[in-house]
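CATEGORY: protein folding

GOAL: derive structure tokens
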Amino acid sequence: MERADSIGNETVLDCIVIGAGPGGLQACIHLGRYNFRVMLFDTPGGRTSYAKHIENYLGIPVVSGPDLLETGLSQAKSFGVMVENVKVDRVLGREGQFEVQAGGKTFRSRFVIAASGAKETLAPFKNLHRFFGHSYYTCMICDGYRTTGKKLLVIDRTVNGVRMSVGMKQMYTKDVTFLAHGFSLAPVYRALLEEEGIGLVEGRPEELLGEATLEGVRLSDGRVIPCEVILGWGGISLNEEYLEGLDVERDAEGFKIMTKSSGESSIPGLFVLGALREGHSQAIISAGQGAEAAIEISTRIVEI
């Protein structure tokens, strides 16, 4: 196996993968099995590493994020993928190739896969981290199932919370209350919640209550709203600072990167996976995107 520290400045790799989440690792596994020279940049802190229960991944009844990533990294290494545990500072396009600057070194590659994911932006509720991932969730698609049959409180700062509340009641639990965080609902939305049998509370949540298990939420006016689970608001910021030197096409909001079905961006040879690109970014979807990108890259390399 070729070592990462043996790669010289003049060596041109087949592909550099940035990010060791499900998408990046799956791309590495595919590319490594094609016997290409692949380097993976792996730094800790991706969202999958905080997942406590992944139970919709084909062939695996339930797995934690860290266990899934550890297995995937071992697989990638077994196929000769070189790993650098340093942060990528910059990706630049140079004469039909890419230069990747990281750890004071410059690496060259025919293709680059950006799969560095995103960071969670969580609500500033006291004790939230005590319950995050097992009683407090931010993604209906990812974790709605974990609320099945439980006393649920949906917290949102916009009327989107009404839609979420209705959806959660239709799919997971009949005991749903919507907490309108810091705003008052218009009559039409109040009527909809009443028609659906969903409770409504207006106020500002401050603290999650309970020790080992969630018991409720205390509002700023002292009221306590009992609950067993919460679907709360949250956002993400993309881990993409290293792409600032590249003029990639983005969505209408200028946030997510637009790609072809293969994952290739508007810059030829730059592929984008997972949370960085438009669409959903669940672990199994990102892994599929990684396989798709790797197959496309392998076809290009053989043609070259």
Summary: The chain has two domains: 4-117+239-303, 120-234.
